[in-house]
Amino acid sequence: MLDPTTDPQPDARPTLEAVAARAGVSRATASRVVNGGAGVRQPLVDQVRKAVDELGYIPNHAARTLVTRRNGAVAVIIDEPEFRIFSDPFFSRQIRGISRELNAHDAQLVLLLVEGSGDFDRVTRYLAGGHVDGVLAFSLHTDDELPAIIRRFRVPTVYGGRPEHPAAETGDAPQVPYVDCDNRGGAREAVRHLVSLGRRRIAHIAGPRDQTSALDRIGGYHDVLPDAGGDLMAEGDFTAEGGARAMGELLDARPDLDAVFVANDMMASGALRVLRERGVRVPEDVAVVGFDDMASVAEATEPPLTTIRQDVEGMGRLMVRLLMERLNSGTGARPESVITPTELIRRASA
Questions:
Q1: Confidence check: pLDDT of 68 > 60
Q2: Strand 259-262 and strand 287-292: pairing?
Q3: What is the Cα–Cα distance from 222 to 184, expressed in whole angstroms?
Q4: What is the CA radius of gyration of the chain?
């Protein structure tokens, strides 16, 4: 008869019974420790963990799911075209923060990309299958179907960015926690900085108006310049190409402008390119301020970009912490949303 305390053969998978025997505890105690359960004294926890390491025991995921009713996986849903996600460093920074924090909680990241309305059916089927414990969703648009899908399946969720959808107008919007930066306050700081430099014809290249971050930054711009005319405003799409197009429109409409606040660094890089092509000196003729402080962009522009910093990676970590707080509360209580501060980073463009 095989002695369960002996080391397993090289081709045999260690069992939970072998872990329990090696640690000198019951199988139930070993199971609670391995599956993250409570109510086990620390000396016994240490014994079980030592046995797990010595035997090379790997928990059975299916069995663990039955015990904990958790999958150990979190869906990250981004409602943007694939080319934006893999070309804009904002997304890689946020995903990096999310991934690192999920690793600390021994949870797996499942990335779901939404490029069009047809993708919502795929997301719906996946969430309906109960494959994940929760959802982190960001880059939402005002006409998104995603909030309604999440409500339907009651999946614990944290949003990246302040959500806005039609239910908010009737007061029926669910109180889903979110993490966002102080978009409006950061925009005010950017425009006030330009005013402090003596600039008087300050334009704004806005992001798409179906996203709350863009709307809040427009609001901050108008807080400082309430009388700015429509010829000092152009809309981009948060890409370098969109920023270049908007900058061209502004120069055609207001060749006398002497500053521009751009709603993100990617668009600012495109705006700087157009200014250079048209022989406009920065900052001598036109001062430029961006938003995000993506170092790979802001430090590489010519000249280097003055911008508003938001802690994108830290915000990703916060999203995970809020979700884990909700999952571990046992009461279904929703944690409070978090607004993080912004900071003006001065470089050569303004």
A1: no
A2: parallel
A3: 10
A4: 26
Q: Are 47 and 22 in contact (CB under 8 A)?
A: no
Across the beta sheet with 287-292, the strand order is 233-235, 202-206, 259-262, 287-292, 306-309, 343-345
Residues 6+ apart with CB under 8 A from 83: none
- 312 by DSSP, 3-state: which? helix
pLDDT tens-digit readout, 253-283: 999 999 999 999 999 999 999 999 999 999 9
DSSP 283: T
> What secondary structure does DSSP assign to 66-130, as a single string?
HHHS--SEEEEEE-S-HHHHHH-HHHHHHHHHHHHHHHHTT-EEEEEE--STHHHHHHHHHHHTT
With a pLDDT cut of 90, the percent of the chain lying above it is 58
Q: Exposed e or buried b for every residue in 127-148, given b needs 16+ CB within 10 A?
A: beeeebbbbbbbbbbeebbbbe
Cβ pair 294, 288 in contact under 8 A: no
The DSSP bridge partners found for residue 292 are 309
Helix (H) or strand (E) holding 322: helix 312-329
pLDDT at residue 60, as a whole number: 58
Q: How many Cα atoms within 13 Å fall on the side-chain side of residue 328?
A: 11
Q: Which run of H or E residues covers position 272?
A: helix 265-277
d(CA 170, CA 237): 29
Q: What is the pLDDT of residues 189-230, one digit of tens each?
A: 999 999 999 999 999 999 999 999 999 999 999 999 999 989
Half-sphere exposure of 64 (CA within 13 A, CB side): 17
The token pair that represents 212 in the structure block: 């709350």
Angle formed by the axes of helices 312-329 and 89-104, to 10°?
A: 40
Residue 292 phi, psi (nearest 5): 130, -45
For residue 147, cis peptide bond before it (omega within 30 degrees of 0): no
Query: How many Å from the N-terminal Cα to the C-terminal Cα in the chain?
Result: 79
